[in-house]
Amino acid sequence: MSKKVVVLAETRDNSLRNVSFEAIGAAKTISEGGEVVVALFGSDVSAVADELFEYGADRVVIVEHPHLKYYTADGYNQAFLAVVEQENPDAIVFGHTALGKDLSPKVASRLDTGLISDVTSIEGSGDSAEFIRPIYSGKAFERVVSDSKPLFITVRPNNIAPLDQQVGKGGSTEKLTVDITNLRTIVENVVRKATDGVDLSEAKVVVAGGRGVKSSEGFEPLHELAKLLGGAVGASRGACDADYCDYSLQIGQTGKVVTPDLYIAAGISGAIQHLAGMSNSKIIVAINKDPEANIFKVADYGIVGDLFDVVPLLIEEIKAL
Ligand code: FAD
């Protein structure tokens, strides 16, 4: 039976994040030919609605308010509940991002429904859809079915393919006025740290360093390699704890979860807590001077060697291409 699915789009600096398109892809599978309605929040975001149609949205509901310029749990919760009240959806899809992880339990509890979080793939469609998600820090996967109303899932970035882009595909846009009141927090401004320009959570290539990198200067070749490959730099907690890099780069159980096409781990031992954040990457290349290092158990390609020899060689070879 076809369903109405509401997706929460995510923006950063008034651009849509890729996970929004992936969430629409998941919603299409669940809707089985029904309607996919995208909720778009911000203070001046109408201009990006067309891109949502290109990726499969049938309708976009825009809530604009000065207090929605930056995410706050209270503000987004009020706006999303207003969309749910208007649409009465059969299912809801969020990205499993920092925002989605924060907001989805609040919305689920307000709607008194279940939540299947961190979905990495969907088998079947409509009522017979089964949701696959990692458990035990990625050591196993479970298959979940749900009879919650509405069905509510979050999808891990970079796992569910968005639909092929159909430029020119239109749909209807409507504005919903929501009175955002009684906020406990109002964010006036966000100052971001300078980054290499590629968002680590959505990067297609991640070059990560561990304690084996030995210093913040040791990370420089990793930055150069990441830049050459159009990717982002990540790190183990060991490297962050040693102050070689910022905690915003930490990947793992208590850091970011990444699923790039290519993950290069340099000087990382492969502790279970680190694997929890990267073992779903499509191709893993490990560089470690210890042939017994645990990281080689999950690597597709292993290079036993000193990263200070191997990384410059890789840079040289890539530059020569
Ligand atoms: P190490 O284990 O010290 O490994 C360094 C590696 O570098 C070694 O394998 C060594 O052979 C290699 N090496 C050294 N020199 C070179 C060289 N010149 N060339 C090549 N290789 C070299 N960790 C995370 O990463 N992310 C998390 O989110 C996380 N969460 C945690 C949560 C909890 C509750 C706990 C208890 C721990 C958590 N940890 C996490 C920590 C985790 O257990 C490990 O301590 C950490 O991942 C180790 O980091 P590392 O691999 O960089 O360092």
Automatic annotation (TrEMBL):
Domain Electron transfer flavoprotein alpha/beta-subunit N-terminal: 5-195
Record-level Gene Ontology MF annotations: electron transfer activity; flavin adenine dinucleotide binding
A Pfam family per the record: ETF
Name this protein carries in UniProt: Electron transfer flavoprotein subunit alpha
PROSITE patterns: ETF_ALPHA (PS00696)
One record GO biological process: fatty acid beta-oxidation using acyl-CoA dehydrogenase
Cofactor: FAD
Gene3D superfamilies: HUPs, TPP-binding domain
Binding site for FAD: 211, 236-237, 250-254, 267-274, 288
Signal peptide: none
Family, similarity comment: Belongs to the ETF alpha-subunit/FixB family.
Keywords: Electron transport, FAD, Flavoprotein, Transport
Record has Transport as a keyword: yes
Keyword Nucleus part of the UniProt annotation: no
Cofactor note: Binds 1 FAD per dimer.
Lineage of the organism: Bacteria, Bacillati, Bacillota, Bacilli, Bacillales
InterPro entries per the UniProt record, alphabetical: DHS-like_NAD/FAD-binding_dom, ETF_a/b_N, ETF_a/FixB, ETF_alpha_N, ETF_asu_C, ETF_asu_C_CS, Rossmann-like_a/b/a_fold
